[in-house]
Amino acid sequence: MHEDISGVYVVEMDDGSIRLATRNLAPGIKVYGETLLQHGGVELRLWDAYRSKLAAAFMKGLKTSPLRDGIKVLYLGVASGTTCSHVSDIVGNDGRVYGVEFSPRVMREFLERVAKYRRNVIPILADARLPTEYAHLVEEVDVIYQDVAQPYQSKILVDNADFYLKKGGWAFLAIKARSIDVTKEPSEVYKREVETLKDGGFEIVHVVHLEPYDVDHAMILARRT
Amino acid sequence: MGSFIGLLLCNDEGEVLEKALFPKNYEIQASKLYLLSKGESIDEVKELCEKARKLGIDELVVEDPKVAQVFVSAGFQNVKIETPNKVAKAIRSQLLKLVVKIGYATSEDEAVEILHKVAFNLSAKRIVEAVEKRDLLVAQAVSCIDEIEKILNILASRLREWYGVHFPELGNVIKDHEDFVRALILIGHRDNIKKKEVLEELGPLRDKISKILETGPSLGANVLQKDVDVIRDVASIVLKLYEVNERLRRYVDEVMGEVAPNLKELIGPVLGARLIALAGGLERLAKLPASTIQLLGAEKALFRALRTGSKPPKHGVIFQYPEIHRSPKWQRGKIARALAGKIAIAARVDFFTGEYIADELKEDLKNRIKEIKETYKSPPKKVVEKKVKKKVKKEGGSK
Ligand SMILES: C[S@@+](CC[C@H](N)C(=O)[O-])C[C@H]1O[C@@H](n2cnc3c(N)ncnc32)[C@H](O)[C@@H]1O
């Protein structure tokens, strides 16, 4: 076992396969049925790349990550918190994850599974298309992570960056091709979204396709200059 | 600016000039933020207004239009909206440090603790509001709309007939029920249409009334003031009902956005709400097969068909969807089936995951309808002539 990307452990399983893991910030508590491992007095949670696009991106060779201890993250579309819980592990108790989700039912699960046990997670039931609505809760952040399965995703990202992202901050954007535009092929969708990002002051640092973990998504890592 | 500790008044340099802080209690903090986000006033708004005035400040800048509205209602006229605002951004870049500096928390750790608890409470509040049977409320509201509309039709017809004894010409020129009722109330006794102030109040309806004046004396009976007064009494209630109905529609629109945004976007708030009402709630609708959804609201016709062996219905309440009732008869069943399929998906996503997929659904549906319109351009008879036997059978069997 060793640490490659900050806060992310690479675990070699007994059968020789490679898995990712993070250090459990809420010891003893599982979020989505993941396996807990003990390693030198530290409890690790295995991170399932088939269930989390961020893990898939790391598995697919994304080497740079702005996520590390003490970082502030605005997470748009936390859902029930599968990925968010690992981000919470990585940024640790000095960091913070502002988790925005607009479905009440999903948010309820998020509160019960994740936010309840992690003080560094700030849950926000709100629509990510309206960043003004949560301005009374969110501070300036270093990273925005967005996975909302919505049309005009890049615009949502840029609008939120205008509000909350600090100069030189980073953004992860999970793009689901079909949800952006049904009539066009993915490549065109990327092009258009990437264009919006660039117009919004972002520079694309990496684009990783997530298959086989996730067949119709890609992860974009961008930086605001 | 609003924050989880209260309201802060800052100058252009980002220095805090004044503050109206919330009591240090998670429940209270959360409920104050909750009210503020709904555009309702809280004591701290008034407090900050007064403090601002004492400092001789006559213009405020806020980021949230709803908060701006609250300040205006509290009597502060000059409120600008700027999203995002530079000063607010500067504050956000050191928000938790500021909380300590102000003395609201003793350490940054405590500040985070407060933030976490307030956010948790606030989200929980909103969940309760959103999840607690709001679908059943919207179902009741839409059923009430339907009932009010029935009553309105009955009463408006009654008023036309009743008032027509005295002044039949008015009903002849004003066809819209609501306009008719409004005019009736304003006019009262028919002689009043000669009065200038009455004409003025009639606004856009004035031209129609002037026409009556031109055609000479009324053919109706001359009646007493008390005869007219009772008609007007009823008319004012009817007008009130029109207003209530309008408000109900807006309510349904709003709540449908919270309860079933995909359904609302796909087929409109009122029709969506009717389906929820017919199914007995969003959960039940989400669990129905598309074929049942297609026939919701046509139960009577369906049972009649089963009893008598007549043709079964092709669509229930979704017939109100414009693309169905505007299309020629032979296409309706097919469009209804396509639509019901999309409705089933929308309801499931609304109930189970809450993702927003309405745009894809609409796009898919649009394409499918286009396809149906092209494939079945002419009535089935012509299809029989042109196409091979096999296809004809399939076409006949699908009805
Ligand atoms: C694909 S899921 C996210 C999965 C999550 N990131 C994970 O890996 O665990 C997308 C989520 O975004 C939410 N969402 C969609 N549109 C949103 C919006 N405008 N604002 C906030 N959340 C939104 C959906 O309700 C859904 O839960």
Report the helical percentage of chain B. 55-70%
For the termini of chain B, the CA-CA separation is 62 Å
Number of helical regions of chain A: 6
Bound small-molecule species: S-adenosylmethionine
The class by helix and strand makeup of chain A works out as alpha/beta
**Any idea what the radius of gyration of chain A is?**
17 Å
Shape of chain A: globular
Instruction: Name the helicity range of chain A.
Output: 25-40%
Tertiary shape of chain B: flat
Q: What's the count of strands of chain B?
A: 5
Structural class of chain B: mainly alpha
Provide the fold topology.
The complex is a heterodimer of chains A (225) and B (399).
Chain A: E1 2-3, E2 9-12, E3 18-23, E4 36-39, E5 42-47, H1 53-59, E6 72-76, H2 82-91, E7 96-101, H3 104-113, E8 121-125, E9 141-146, H4 153-164, E10 165-176, H5 177-180, H6 186-199, E11 202-209, E12 217-224
Parallel strand pairs in A: 6-7, 6-9, 7-8, 9-10
Antiparallel strand pairs in A: 1-2, 2-3, 3-5, 4-5, 10-12, 11-12
Chain B: E1 2-3, E2 6-10, E3 16-21, H1 26-37, H2 43-54, E4 60-62, H3 65-73, E5 79-81, H4 86-92, H5 95-102, H6 108-131, H7 134-166, H8 168-173, H9 177-187, H10 196-202, H11 206-214, H12 225-259, H13 261-267, H14 269-279, H15 282-287, H16 290-295, H17 299-308, H18 322-325, H19 329-353, H20 358-375, H21 380-386, H22 389-397
S-adenosylmethionine sits between chains A (52-53, 77, 79, 82-83, 100-103, 106, 127-129, 147-150) and B (354-356).
